[in-house]
Amino acid sequence: CCRLFLKLSAISELLIIFLPFATGLLFSHLISGDVVDIYQREFLALRDRLHAAEQESLKRSKELNVVLDEIKRAISEKQALRDINRTWSSLSDETKLKLWNITNKNVLHLPTIFHHLPHLLSKENSLQPAIHLGQGRTGVSIVMGIPSVKREVHSYLTDTLNSLISELNQQEKEDSVIVVMIAETDPQYTTGVAENIKSLFPSEIHSGLLEVISPSPHFYPDFSRLRESFGDPKERVRWRTKQNLDYCFLMMYAQSKGIYYVQLEDDIVAKPNYLSTMKNFALQQPSEEWMILEFSQLGFIGKMFKSLDLSLIVEFILMFYKDKPIDWLLDHILWVKVCNPEKDAKHCDRQKANLRIRFKPSLFQHVGTHSSLAGKIQKLKDKDFGKQSLRKEHVNPPAEVSTSLKTYQHFSLEKAYLREDFFWAFTPTAGDFIRFRFFKPLRIERFFFRSGNIEHPEDKLFNTTVEVLPFDSLQSDKEALQEGRATAFKYHRTSDGYIQIGSFSKGIAEGEVDPSFGPLEAIRLSIQTDSPVWIILSEVIGHSGQAIK
């Protein structure tokens, strides 16, 4: 079509050029002036028609170019749509819903967190953590969430973290994340707690095992407008309402980090192998219909959820966060999912039991006495937790044990050394000691001492050194010099001949004994400063070599 119009245009241009010459030639052969006028008018008319055809050709050419541009744009848009569809299909359902809400031009919109907490719209960073320590680890099996608030009397957070971390092996440490949420808005307090955790657990922070967050002060609504309900005073209503929001913030932060989420508290202790036990129990469930796996019967401790269910749980809690405490709301979720209003309560309980499955014995014990609610004393204990034996199969070498500490009841040092029980003593003072003198001098390769236990995690040894007494101090020094290593001299030696080789940290002392010391006559724990608490020595392990005959 374009070529035809171009040919017509070229012909018209030739006619316009040669028209005057043709007209002159014709005039020379015509005799009559009238005939000349007639042909001249016809030629002029032909020229006008050709010019009009040329203009029409140009117009049609422009229109065709417009059509071609539209076709190219349509092809490009179709390709772009294919790319968008591929991208869209790769998005999660939650992200699709959010994008649909943002871009949809219809009047219907899905509810979001801003419908339940409209005050969040007033501050841009209201949903961003004010504090964030850690490596942002993702892709793990289990995420453990610990909300922690300021307590008037005593904080149990450090003991809780010590218990949780000490019971993890290396593989478990690489397949889990512990998220501590400092649920306070005072920046001085939250920063202080975060720095304290960072100083006590630097390797755990650096490796990605431990993360510390704190919500923005703008995350919480105005609690002064809450109405009293269920006979609770206003302060308790505020406490439980804020607690619900704390759980929501922590769950929203943790949901993308792992497969399972476990809710814990900041005043608990854990049993050995607790993480693998929880993971295996979840994997062994015959059906995926479960919603909550319980590893403690108390409150909101040891509750496992699938991370995929956290969005539903958070949304339900946000709808009623001002109305009821968290444990009631969780039960209501189960009721809504499986209970038939036309059936009796027993039928409902049977149905809920398929969604809420209990593991026994409990893996976590509540140890806190002073509640996060000001003035409240609670002595809750999980009866299914039972007594935990921290001892491992090991026989210590024969030795005479002695101590300057006053023993509490029947918890003697002899029983602790023989792996029969733990040693429990009254408050120590500077200069007190615990000594193990071997019946025959022998080489000790490694040592391990653990203070505190599950029931009394605070009864630990602080500022206490581990000391050894070589059987022949002069001989050990000679061996060190002969080997070109002044090993003995790099350690501090006490006035009575003992050499300091270690100290307690977080209630534990462990390490290797330098072989240049030779056979040892005794090992001693020396307390350097007064302690504010009683002490428990729950594990005493000395890996020995060949004894002196």
UniProtKB/TrEMBL annotation:
Pfam families associated with the record: MGAT4_cons, MGAT4A_C
Alphabetical keyword list: Glycosyltransferase, Transferase
Residue ranges of every copy of the MGAT4 conserved region domain listed in the record: 110-385
Keyword Ribonucleoprotein set for record: no
GO BP terms: protein N-linked glycosylation
Residue ranges of every copy of the MGAT4 A/B/C C-terminal domain listed in the record: 399-539
Pathway: Protein modification; protein glycosylation
Protein name: Alpha-1,3-mannosyl-glycoprotein 4-beta-N-acetylglucosaminyltransferase B
Species classification: Eukaryota, Metazoa, Chordata, Craniata, Vertebrata
